[in-house]
What we know:
Blueprint: H1 9-13, H2 29-33, H3 45-53, H4 56-61, H5 64-67, H6 73-77, H7 84-99, H8 104-110, H9 112-133, H10 144-147, H11 150-180, E1 201-202, E2 205-206, H12 207-223, H13 225-228, H14 233-258, H15 260-263, H16 274-299, H17 310-334, H18 338-362, H19 367-386
Antiparallel strand pairs: 1-2
Helix pairs in contact: 7-8, 8-9, 9-18, 11-18, 11-19, 12-19, 14-16, 16-17, 17-18
Amino acid sequence: MSIGVDPDFILDLKKFGVADASTCFNCGNCTAVCSLSTESTPFPRKTIRYLQLGAKEKLLQSPEPWLCYYCGDCTETCPRDANPAEVMMGIRRYLTTKYDWTGISRLFYISKLFEVLAILIIGLLVGVGFYFFHGPMLTDRVALNVFAPNTVIEILDLIMLGVLSVLLLSNGYRMFTAVTGDPAQYLLPDEDGKQPSRGFLIRGIPVSIYLAEFKEFILHLTTQKQFISCKTDSQKMQWFVHLLIMTGYSIIFLFVVVGLRWFQRDEILSIWNPIRFLGYYSTFAILYGTSYAIIGRLRKSKTVYKHTHSSDWAFLALLWLTTFTGILVHIGRLLEMPLSTYYIYVIHLMIAVPMLVIEVPFAKWTHQLYRPLIQYLMKVRERALANN
């Protein structure tokens, strides 16, 4: 089967932060030093070769870019200074735009103007909505559920959750179809030339295989197992920071979007209440993790922090500011400062909503789905092909 090539492909990828891939002469040193690269899934060398050849379809079907967790070993040992680690990061940005059917991801990654305007416009819409539709601002006490009733906010949250879930899952399905490839490869006839009965199929693979391997998705989603498989002490710290941010964000997301009526209460819960305790953990985890990453990027203390795309800064800034303003809201409640609490609450949502609307289906947070999904699909493919 012939493979189409695009000689200008490498130029297009420069928009996504891939600056030095043309200097690579495929020595294979990057693949040799990578502790995650295997004989069956070699990278970064193979991935960079696809890029240089302009083999966009091959790259779209390749799981390898998502198997890289950017420890930086390949960049540190590259004899050509081709920066393969950042190349892999840029390819992940590009692939995110290819999975996204709306085109918003591409605009977000290649246009700083769109990135800034999207955040500002969504934030301003939230602020305008509060200006016209907020409830009474009681000043004798802090009454957030009078100013912004949690039942109303909860309905809006669930609507937003539904929309974002449809966008993210539909993009995830496009990744699924690209990586699983042609369904015919899983439907080889038996020795008699007959097609064996395989039950209900999804893209040529029995549903029973998807169900049997689903534990892989849960395992990688909750533990980031592949991340910690990198053999360096530095990467273990990166895994810890990443896990803090992921768990902290996930807990807060569930509280705010799904369980707001229990989380946003006018009475102050006991310090030992599980909701308050988990809220404090999430706050610490996100604030520590994002601060660690921001300081590292400012100091360029590690290879992973030496090259930062504007989208990385947007993600970290929005998440840090969302957490910090959330702390200020809580302090305002504890100190019984009604007006200050209401105003900060609005600012908090003007930052949090753009972060959710942009980051979850279109930008950095998509990695939370795509990485474990790739690990899962590789197991599914391996088992399906072995059953032929």
